[in-house]
Design goal:
The chain contains 9 helices and 14 strands. It has 309 residues and is an alpha+beta fold. Helix 3 packs across helix 5, helix 3 crosses helix 8 and helix 3 crosses helix 9.
């Protein structure tokens, strides 16, 4: 979960924590005639933060999947995302049967947000597709050596996903994702004056001490990973994480370059999101090529399997 387009955050603020998330299940129950209530009983519960109400974890995943991926995307992509979201949820729960919502890093939609995004005319069909994706994967998670993985995902990579270099996540490897080059917003460019650039980077921790004189000449990308994502960058003699610089510059990926131009500094970024794990755009493209959710997940998380705990 992480940075990127609204559909691809691996981590972010929980929204809709009032009573609406509970009511949305009741409000749309008639739309779910393709599924039985038993398919949505896991024995695990999520306690909504502001109300104290408990809902089944599978019901909560319906609200989460609605926020994570467009409902119009291919069925197998939705199923893959549902399994990834469940992996995150169940991984956070561990051996516990109940977890508070504020302990999760999952975005959710309430009924009003669903209607705003899908439109009233597509509400029933969109909800049915989301619920079907959760119900048809009930209990399934992505496993490494029998344990739920850190199922990171993003909207679109720069063309290859990132490999974890810490050694903690052997299943996060560099995987070719050529479909991402066709993702809307894949290429982002902007030209900032040196004054605009300085104003932005001074929002970084320690950035307020960067001198204003000829700042373009002080920029040096110190470290990139194999996919081209910036890990460390030096500005004004100070070192910063590439992800933090991307954030203050307003680009959606840390796979970026900075070049001096007549107007100031040209920023070019590729991809949307942190680049680790499953590319959602890639998952959608693979699904259009008749790949199953299990095949998609095995591709983006090499060495893992899909199963139940």
């Amino acid at each position: 979960m992480g940075t990127g387009k609204k559909w691809g955050k691996a981590a972010g603020a929980i929204v809709g924590t009032l009573m609406i998330p509970y009511l949305v299940t009741l409000f749309f129950w008639d739309y779910a005639d393709v599924l039985s209530q038993e398919e949505f009983y896991s024995g695990r519960n999520v306690v909504l933060s502001q109300t104290g109400e408990s809902i089944d974890a599978e019901e909560y995943l319906v609200l989460a999947l609605a926020a994570q991926m467009p409902a119009s995307w291919p069925e197998e992509a939705l199923r893959a995302q549902a399994i990834a979201a469940r992996t995150i949820l169940y991984g956070k729960m561990g051996e516990e049967q109940t977890i508070r919502e504020d302990a999760l890093a999952l975005d959710v939609y309430d009924a009003g947000q669903m209607e705003q995004v899908w439109g009233k005319s597509q509400m029933e069909e969109s909800y049915r597709r989301i619920r079907q994706a959760v119900g048809s994967t009930a209990g399934l998670v992505v496993l490494w050596e029998g344990q739920p993985i850190e199922a990171l995902y993003h909207y679109a990579s720069c063309g290859v996903t990132r490999a974890d270099t810490s050694g903690r996540y052997p299943y996060l490897q560099a995987v070719d994702s050529p479909w991402d080059l066709e993702a809307p917003g894949y290429l982002q460019t902007a030209v900032l004056t040196q004054e605009e650039f300085l104003q932005k980077v001074r929002h970084l921790e320690g950035g307020e001490q960067i001198a204003s004189e000829n700042i373009a000449a002080t920029i040096q990308i110190a470290q990139k990973d194999a996919g081209g994502y910036v890990e460390q960058i030096v500005i004004g003699g100070r070192s910063f994480y590439g992800s933090k610089v991307a954030e203050v510059l307003g680009v959606a990926s840390s796979c970026f370059t900075l070049e001096a131009s007549e107007e100031g500094i040209r920023v070019t970024a590729l991809g949307i999101g942190h680049g680790y794990g499953m590319s959602q755009w890639g998952a959608s493209s693979m699904a259009k090529e008749q790949k199953t959710a299990e095949e998609i997940l095995a591709y983006y998380y090499p060495g893992c399997s899909v199963g139940t705990l």
